[in-house]
Specification:
9 strands, single chain, 4-stranded parallel sheet, about 325 residues, alpha/beta
Length: about 325
């Protein structure tokens, strides 16, 4: 298995073979997590620090669980009560962290590029758990693993990403990853929630839900990022659900075996019908949560191997 990176800051720098490396190792961790004994020792003796400047449930919990299952000493820093609130700069925080000698640093930050800045200043491996509207690489990787396990492959599929594209780092990372793996990507949503320049992204763009879902293999719904909206992007939640919320009638335009995804947290009755979200024959939303732990275990495992390796060395699993 080849993976040459010191950090995991985004999907953009990854080659398809490196994406496959993470997913293949994550597959093995799925088996471990489903077994009676769920612990390994890939991170034994290492220290993992989780710094979440934004609230998180799934991502923070799965990173914490992933580290503990691999034997790391895991510390969660409460950034809402940290010295950042007292005026400390991100650089000063990085210097403080260096003095503690962590091995893995998991960071979520509301500003795009903040995680990259930290990675330049600390002496440990950094994993981006989401930065502003920029990227959320482990979410895209867990989505990819979910698709691959459900469909048996991760190439030449037709995939619709629907909803709030403009404010979504999940959408950006998925577009990058799925494009690298030779999939046909459709973006579906109102023009007010499409990013500028989207026509140059190598994707198809639809503002009609039924047309956008026609014949697709995967329907990936997105959360309305209300915390990042500073204007009237939608007339009302009721109108949004009528036009862009996923229900059985709209889903009927997709392939009969199409799977339904959502990164969570879901706004039921706004982005997706609750009954459909819970339909075990179509929805893989719970599988996404399960794959998240395995993917984060794989990513930290590979980065831990590289921390002691010379630059550009091939890492063998």
């Amino acid at each position: 298995m080849t993976f040459r990176h010191r950090h995991l800051l985004g999907i953009e720098p990854l080659h398809p073979v490196e994406i496959t490396t993470i997913l293949d190792l994550a597959d093995r961790y799925v088996d471990l997590n489903r077994g009676a004994r769920k612990h390994g020792d890939a991170l034994a003796g290492l220290t993992q620090v989780n710094m979440f400047f934004e609230n998180s449930t799934r991502t923070q919990a799965s990173f914490e669980l992933a580290g503990k299952r691999l034997g790391a000493d895991v510390m969660n820093m409460s950034m809402q009560a940290s010295s950042i609130k007292k005026g400390e700069t991100l650089i000063d925080t990085a210097m403080t962290l260096n003095a503690m000698h962590p091995d893995l640093l998991v960071v979520r930050h509301p500003h795009s590029g903040a995680v990259n800045l930290l990675a330049e200043k600390v002496n440990c491996a950094v994993l981006n758990a989401g930065d502003g509207r920029h990227e959320h690489p482990t979410q895209a990787l867990l989505d990819a693993l979910t698709i691959r396990r459900a469909k048996g492959r991760l190439h030449r599929l037709s995939i619709a990403i629907c909803g709030d594209i403009a404010h979504s780092r999940v959408a950006r990372s998925n577009i990058l990853l799925l494009g690298k793996m030779e999939n046909r990507i459709r973006l579906v949503g109102p023009p007010t929630l499409m990013p500028a320049g989207v026509a140059d992204w190598g994707v198809e763009v639809f503002d009609d839900m039924r047309a956008g879902l026609e014949g697709v293999d995967v329907v990936m719904m997105l959360r309305l990022q209300k915390e990042r909206m500073d204007g009237g992007f939608i007339p009302s939640e009721r109108e949004y659900y009528h036009r862009y919320g996923l229900d059985a009638e709209k889903l009927s335009c997709a392939r009969p075996d199409a799977i339904v995804m959502h990164p969570g947290p879901m706004n039921r009755g706004v982005e997706i019908d609750g009954t459909l979200a819970d339909d075990i024959n179509r929805s893989v939303i719970q599988e996404q949560v399960e794959m998240g732990v395995a993917v984060r275990m794989a990513a930290m495992d590979l980065l831990a191997r590289n921390r002691a390796a010379p630059p550009a060395r091939e890492v063998m699993a």
